[in-house]
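user: can you give me the structure for this one chain? tokens are fine.
assistant: on it. calling the predictor now.
[tool input]
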Amino acid sequence: MLAYGMSEKGPVRDMNEDSFGYEQVGQCLCMAVADGVGGEACGEIASRIAVDSVMETLKDSLPFVKDRDALGSYLKTVFNKANINILHDCLEHRERMGMCTTLTIAILKGTELTIAHIGDTRCYMLHGSELIKLTEDHNETGRLVKKGLISEDEAKYHPGRNRLFKVLGENQYQNPDIYSYNISYGDLVFLCSDGLYSFMSNEQFKACTRERNNLEGVCSKLIAQALEGNSTDNITVTIGRSEPAVEL
């Protein structure tokens, strides 16, 4: 399996509210990253429930999804199951009421990439020397960037970057963004929390990926770069590399 992930509490936060997971399921590499919403009750528990639920559901039922066109609807079901698990945990532990999290899932099968996404964790792709952001942030700055009112660089310092309008853990049907891409063998797919991407430029990000065959080393360099950039948040990154699909 050509994947690796790493998480760091960082120098400011008292605990790590990020969670991640990755696993080979049949012909698919499955990755997930969640960032418990800061300032809310038990964000670290919400993110862990989300990732654990996702990975368990994918292992149980992803092999039965044979049609790529059906994968988007399936991932919405995966999201809603994770959401229900968070809500049920809140009912069992009243002190956790209101806990919520972001969640981004990537399913990589050969050159077929499918993403399901809620919040401001991000998915990037490195194609050759080009770093491409594949998801949109569900926060105030994401809306402003989409409208062309501010740049990606300006969004890093805008006060609206912490105001999310879409999270997992709300008592309603979850409708994540679904993206489907055809990529190339050798491309790298990154899932990361805002504690990583908000504290480095794209050029610094790409500089950390020069030894792209060493995914553990790339993870370490990215986290070190975020720390050097004075990250004030938890820092998480998971990487997968597109390779010919092999049934296990």
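assistant: here you go. The chain has one domain: 3-241. The helical segments are 43-61, 71-92, 140-146, 152-155, 194-197, 202-207, 215-228.
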